[in-house]
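cron nightly-structures :: item 1 of 1
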Amino acid sequence: MRRPELLRLCVCVQPSPSPGSPRAWRCARCALALIWHAPAGEVPGDLAFVSVSDGVGVGLVLGGEPLRGRNNAAGEFGHLPLGIDGPRCACGGNGCIEAFLSGPGLARDHLLATAEAREPADIVARAESGDRGCAATLERYEERLARALASVINLFDPEVIVLGGGLSNIDRLYRSVPARWSRHIYSDAVVTRLVKAAHGDASGVRGAARLW
């Protein structure tokens, strides 16, 4: 069913001219629309869709309804600071979550640590093959992702966090990140689940299509 109120959530799904544009945030919301259109009873009332790809964005459903915010800016998660002394972000800030957790951020972190220019997929493959430098890079990424997602849990306490975008294809994240995030969450017990988006990289486009 077409949902006019959701059309405002998805302004654009075309590739953006720069990593600092709102594309990741918009695609996260589009992907969220795909989840929200699932049959009744299959979607938790509180969930977050986190896109980690060229950028980082979040789409939120709370109490069964999408969260837009007063300024239609809810979910600009990628530009919250993860470390004020961190790398320069395309938005002009320093240490933004996106600067650390996007694909370009992962590649840049590896380059700074090892002087090796590698794509994220290559870093992951080499880490799994025993390359110590790549393994260390991936462990730093997992810890940063755990800290970032812990902030989502501390603020919204969703039942499920769905991970989408290109970096969601790193299978070990679904074991290592929940194992790391508990110490950053202000609760005696953490039962939030981290799951992979069923449609992976295509979730944003599929979600936009479901709005029409």
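cron nightly-structures :: done
Confidence is low (pLDDT under 50) at residues 1-25, 205-212.
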